[in-house]
Amino acid sequence: MFEKFGEFDSYEEINRAAAAQLKENDEEAVYLIAKENGLDEEDAEDFCTGAIDTLTTAELAAVGKLNLEAKELGAKGILEDWKDFIVQACMENRELSLAVRRKGKRLEACLGNILKASFQKKEQIHDGIVKAAGLKPPIYIGIPGKAEVRKLVEAYYLEKKK
User: Fold this and answer.
1) How far apart are CA 52 and CA 140, in angstroms?
2) Is residue 162 predicted with pLDDT exceeding 70?
3) Which of 22, 42, 54, 122 has the greatest count of CB atoms below 10 A from its CB?
4) pLDDT tens profile 40-74
């Protein structure tokens, strides 16, 4: 991630870098900026041809970063669901999109916070359910609900108290 152009702190920085490369007629660099930031190749093409004025938006830049990070982490199952929840939250909350894009903010840390909260709230599952699953009691599980996940995401990215 971010090998050639480095990590951008905002979607505006991405757009400025892409515009500078386009001004130098270096369309290949525009495509590379898009790829390194998880943006669609079609958007890079539209930007290079003048069909759109900027390469990205706050929301698309945040989603691109989240998708790249999730791929790098190999996020599957509940971790992918949590990432998708953050993506959805970014599409609904511009402030969160801007925060996700900031340098140093990592999906890995946010998911780690959610995982930690999951372990802290684990509860024993009723033995009847465990036996019906063909498992041996006792089994403990803790998965935070959407409201708690939202609070944890905002606490991390927006640096708010939980």
Assistant:
1) 51
2) no
3) 22
4) 999 999 999 999 999 999 999 999 999 999 999 99
Return the structure tokens found at 108. 């890995």
CA angle 98, 5, 57 (to 5 degrees): 30
- Stretch (H or E) spanning 108: helix 107-120
Measured between alpha carbons, how far is 47 from 36 in angstroms, rounded to an integer? 16
pTM for this predicted structure: 0.89
Compute CA distances 152 → 7, 31, 68, whole Å.
24, 34, 21
**CA dihedral sign of residues 9, 11, 16, 20:** positive
99: Cα separation from own chain's centroid: 11
Q: Name residue, tokens 């599409």.
A: 91
Q: How many whole angstroms separate alpha carbon 127 and alpha carbon 28?
A: 60
Q: Is 60 exceeded by the pLDDT of residue 11?
A: yes
Q: pLDDT value at position 3?
A: 74
For residue 1, name the pLDDT band (cuts at 50, 70, 90): low
Which tokens belong to 159?
A: 């640096």
Output the average pLDDT for the chain: 95
Q: How many CB atoms lie within 10 A of CB 84?
A: 14
